Design the sequence.
């Protein structure tokens, strides 16, 4: 009996402590700060750690993180920040020494809800608050988006457009928060390749969709002169 109990305790330890997932440079639909990036997300049974970096672009630049930072789930519930590392808590701030200097820091949250495919990361403060909308946690979908993006970076916008359209036509409903990224890329690439009918088609699909933060994505496109 003692050996049996020890065996089950070992199995429970493996289940509880053995689960982990690391997402390198997850894709997202929109962010607030130009040089702020998510370098990776580590998900375990005990916690969720988001690793970020921000690059200073001005003389006398500074950065801090408010204590009111949370993960917003697709169902609208929130998971509050439990710890931070490498960054002062506002009103204290990190003073950059040079232009181009990067600050790397970590934000720790409770374990993610099982099955979560995407999240928003939001700083709730009074000014210069940061946010990431539609952060993709699906490894396969991240890979497809990366592959489509690489085509655009390699000066193959038509192939990139076709890849994003394929993703857009097959994306599952539980990834609805990532759809904004897909719409934005399709519309921009269609405009870049002078495929105005396709740009118009997907712009109107975006307008009639029910995806989260639709109005923000339309506003983003409009700010770049893309209106159909």
Sequence:
């Amino acid at each position: 009996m003692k050996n049996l109990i020890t065996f089950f305790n070992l199995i429970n330890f493996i289940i509880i402590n053995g689960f982990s997932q690391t997402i390198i440079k997850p894709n997202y639909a929109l962010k607030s700060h130009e040089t702020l990036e998510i370098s990776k997300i580590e998900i375990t049974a005990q916690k969720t750690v988001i690793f970020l970096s921000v690059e200073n672009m001005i003389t006398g630049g500074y950065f801090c993180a408010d204590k009111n930072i949370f993960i917003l789930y697709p169902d609208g519930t929130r998971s509050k920040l439990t710890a931070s590392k490498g960054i002062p808590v506002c009103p204290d701030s990190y003073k950059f020494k040079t232009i181009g200097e990067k600050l790397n820091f970590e934000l720790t949250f409770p374990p993610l809800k099982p099955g979560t495919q995407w999240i928003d990361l939001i700083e709730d403060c009074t000014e210069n608050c940061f946010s990431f909308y539609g952060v993709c946690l699906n490894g396969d979908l991240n890979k497809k988006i990366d592959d489509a993006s690489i085509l655009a970076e390699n000066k193959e916008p038509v192939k990139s457009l076709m890849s994003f359209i394929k993703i857009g036509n097959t994306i599952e409903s539980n990834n609805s928060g990532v759809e904004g990224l897909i719409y934005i890329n399709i519309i921009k690439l269609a405009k870049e390749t002078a495929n105005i009918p396709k740009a118009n088609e997907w712009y109107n699909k975006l307008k009639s969709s029910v995806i989260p933060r639709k109005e923000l994505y339309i506003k983003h496109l409009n700010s770049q002169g893309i209106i159909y």
In short: The CA atoms of residues 162 and 186 lie 8 Å apart.
